Amino acid sequence: MEQFLQAAVIGISLGAQYALLALGFTLIFGILGVVNFAHGGFYMIGGYVAYSCVGLLGLPYPLAVLIAVAATAALGWVFELFLLERLIDDHLATLMLTLGLYLIVSNGLLRVFGPLSMEFSFPVSGSIQFGPIYVPRENLIVLGICLSAILALWLVLFRTDLGRALRALADDRQVAMAQGMRPKLLFPAAFALATGLAGLTGALVTPILALSPGVGDPVLATSFLTVILGGLGSLGGAALAAFIVGIVEAYSSVYFGGSIGALVLFTLVLLLLVFRPTGLLGREIRGA
Amino acid sequence: MKTSVTLLAAAFSLAATVAAQAQDCTAKVGAMGPMSGGAAQWGLAMAGAAELAAAEVNATGGVTINGKKCKIVVVSYDSKYTADGAAAGANALASEGIKIIIGPVGSPEATGIKPVAARNEQLTWNAAYAKNALEAKYPLVFHIAPGPGTWSDAMVKHALKHFPQIKSVALVAPNDQGGTDIASVDAVAYRNNGVKATEEYYQRGTTNFAPIITRLLATNPDAVDTASSPPGDAGVIVKQLRLAGFKGPIGRMGGPGTEEILRVSGGMDVLKDFYWFETVAVTDQMREIDNIYRKLLGKEPVGGTALWGNLPAARMTMKAIVNAGTVEDAAKVAAELRKLPVEDPNMGKGLWAGQKQYGINQELFFAFGVGIIKDGKEVGIARIEPTN
Amino acid sequence: MARLPLAPRQRLLAWDEATAIAVAVVCFIIPLLTKSVLVYSVLNHALIGVIAAQSVWIMLRMNLLTFATPAFMALGGYTVAIAGRYEITDAFLMTAAAFLVPALVAVPLGALVLRLRGTYFVLVTFVLSQIMQLLLFQTPDLTGGSNGIAGIPAVTLFGTEMISHRQVLLFACGIALIATLIAVALTRYFRQHFAAIEENEILSESLGLVVWRYKALGFVVAAGLAGLAGYSLVNMLLTAHPSSFDSAIAVDFIAYTIIGGRESILGPIIGSVALVYATHAFGTQGQYAQGLYGVLILVVILVARGGIVGTARLLWRRMRGPRA
User: Fold this and answer.
1) Where are the domains of chain B?
2) Are B243 and A10 in contact (CB < 8 Å)?
3) Cβ neighbours of A96 in C, within 8 Å
């Protein structure tokens, strides 16, 4: 029972992290139709910016996280506006562009910071005991921020004009444009919103786990997994799938060890892609 | 006044000729090991040892090859703790004409490099604790230090003296040869000393150890041993073990890297009770190595005691190169190397070993240490002398 | 075979295909001319890249971008490594097996994944190569798990062990030539069909082209070629290890193809050779090569869509233009 509850704690905190990543990824796909191979890159940039602010400039950690979010969002904005925008309707070309960006980012970070893990730890430590199970304080804080960010994103998308415009563009770009939505303004905004979320996750999670130039690869794989499971482009689906992935991962590694859980998830996703490409909650958004 | 100018000019021209001669000829030697990821410290320690040994030889004028004085230059390669990384590295170094390689480090790397280095006729070292770290059919492979089969029993006995409460232990290590070959031998040593041992293996590259820790603690062990987990991983494991409320002693009968574990886990207070196998028995004479390093290379040494442990192998190789007068004929260098007594200015005297375990006497065996931290304070490192 | 009515005069080989085969043949001469280990090393890597990039290129001819190359390479490489355990090292037998095993696996797999197009196909191939990695880890009895299989015996050709550097390189040249011949034969014979699918799949289907048949054929052959690349890689390292077939290396082969130029078979060849050489020139390890690939991919996608070959062709035409 102890183990069962402990696995649940691990699964939920993993799920919250995956949700932040997947929401950004799926937002970009839903609105722009772009598969963002650079998502892991923005996660890493978030981590390294926060690290630099704390470790090199001596800023307090919360401020460092905000700066990381701003930096990744700004970079996302610029990248969308100046590069992606030109080829926005060519799926393979935009995919290659984000792939190129990822290679440049991960290699640039390797060049600047070297291959070793950074000494970057969360400012709060210790854990809270609930009977037989324990919850590390850092995980609790990250969980809280992740859930608030998800709520904030929901409010932006469903309660503001910006959100309505973005959703309209995702639903039907032609009609939305005819009604006066301006993709030139909104696309970079959507991209920046999503990359900012990836940067936020990076700034929050890398001090708990590890920060080195390789940490972006698994992020991409997990984002893929989650987003496909939830249905490409579906926000609710992504959030739901993120928790499913986190919990399956936690239980399988606690009870079976190794990577058998990942294998099961990937195989499930393969079958889902083939037989129900729209995922759990998705619907066909664009004829990709 | 005039004489001093002439002297100065003479000194300059002499310096210029020496420099020109040194630049005339460079002799390349390889260094290999994981230089990124959790085991990066070990690879950087290997490269550091090679660079230091080369700098020492260069400071005394370098090596004479075909009558020309040559400077030794170290080319390092990140073999990433994988078999194919080391195999590819042997080829990459061979493509630069490099026949002498200080490294690689771990078991997967040692297994991967052996056949390829044999094809390339390269001399290699390894610090692997694998059961086949040396093989009679690969005479150009040398071993930096003995594996757990040689020292685990003495280690367990010493640890039990300090922590008699240990009745059961859970060993955790990566699920490849670099982990299994060590943890399984450690487990036998624990069992022989009346301690119940369980083994838990994780995928190399894991970053979140929370699920593994939950599994480990399910057996309620008195102690947890991180065996040969890379120092970076072991640091996270220690941190998360303590977060999970584990209060027992933590052991490490595997590789060096206590410094890195301290850094990653959050310090002495987190570590609290800790015992570890130290590849070298630390003395002031050995601490001196770091000063020599700073002086000759002008930078901070990386790798802690692993650098010290690798240094005798690197120094002896350089000596063998000087004696053989070549860096291109690995067999000749190996022959010279076998003739040398196992001796090091900082480490003291050791023995050639390996015949009994591997059937080939190409292993360096120096005194080793057992380190103890109790209640967050370092008790010290006990020295255990080598015997054949 | 359904022939498209629009087939104009078909030459036996186009100039670029003839050049590609000629390059592969010339490759045999290099090991006989030099003993430079540097040349051997770069060439050996480039030859493996050429085969894998041709596999990517065949799929791109049908407008499908694949990340599954490492998965099929692993199938080919591990087939040879496992056979080596039983002392089966005959070059002809193993070449056939390294091609056929991944090709056969690709038949049912193709039936599943070829229903997808565009982005969804990219995603599914990415997932495939992840699954292959995990499968390798989960099958320690067969594949050695995380340890891989080390110390694979050298390949034997007519009873001779191909053990020296020169022999290994000559063998790599042989595999590359076979792969190039297969790729040329496939894309030449079905040139019109592939072009039609690349241009507009739905239109060609409505015009009566049995699209799935050619896509399946392309997928199966591409898988076989990737298997050959895996064989060549394993033979060079004498080790089959999961990290050799990491899904991240798919990016390298895509980079070779896109940067070399996707419109001609010379693209993957020139791309592989140029980028492998550049990787080497960037340091022993090529730590910084990925960044270079990234920049080149951006350049190709944004300003030089034809890659090296396409741009060269364009410049050539422009230079001759005024005279024509």
Assistant:
1) 2-145+283-349, 148-278+369-384
2) no
3) 254, 258, 297, 301
Test A253 with B212 for CB contact under 8 angstroms. Answer: yes
State whether residue B142 is helix, strand or coil: strand
Inter-chain residue contact A254 with B200, CB threshold 8 Å? no
Cβ neighbours of C48 in B, within 8 Å: none
Chain B residue numbers touching A115 (CB-CB < 8 A): 35-37, 40, 78
Least confident of A29-38, A121-130, C214-223, C289-298: A121-130
Contact call for A119 and B211, based on CB within 8 A = no
Q: Which residues of chain B have pLDDT under 50?
A: 1-3, 5, 7-8, 11-12, 14-22
How far is Cα C296 from Cα A119, in angstroms, rounded to an integer? 33
pLDDT in tens, C260-305: 999 899 999 999 999 988 887 776 566 678 888 999 999 999 998 8
Token output for A208: 């708990």
Residues of C in contact with B91 (CB under 8 A): 41, 44, 236-237
CATH number for the B148-278+369-384 domain, one of 1.10.20.10, 3.30.70.1520, 1.10.760.10, 3.40.50.2300?
3.40.50.2300
* SS3 call for C144: coil
**C299 lies within 8 A of chain B by CB:** no
The tens digit of pLDDT for each residue in C5-64 reads 444 455 667 888 999 999 899 989 998 888 777 788 889 989 999 999 999 999 999 989
Q: Which residues of C128-143 are buried (b: 16+ CB within 10 A; e: fewer)?
A: bbbbbbbbbbeeeeeb
Instruction: Indicate the fold that domain B2-145+283-349 takes in CATH.
Output: Rossmann fold (3.40.50)
Neighboring chain B residues of C147 at a CB cutoff of 8 Å: 83, 108, 111, 176-177
In this prediction the pTM is 0.87
Strand B26-33's sheet: what is its strand order?
Answer: B63-65, B68-78, B26-33, B100-102, B123-126, B141-143, B363-365, B351-353
- Would you give the distance in Å from CA B121 to the centre of its chain? 23
Same fold, B2-145+283-349 and B148-278+369-384: yes
Q: For chains A and B, what is the number of CB pairs under 8 angstroms?
A: 71
Is B111–C151 a contact, with Cβ atoms under 8 angstroms apart? yes
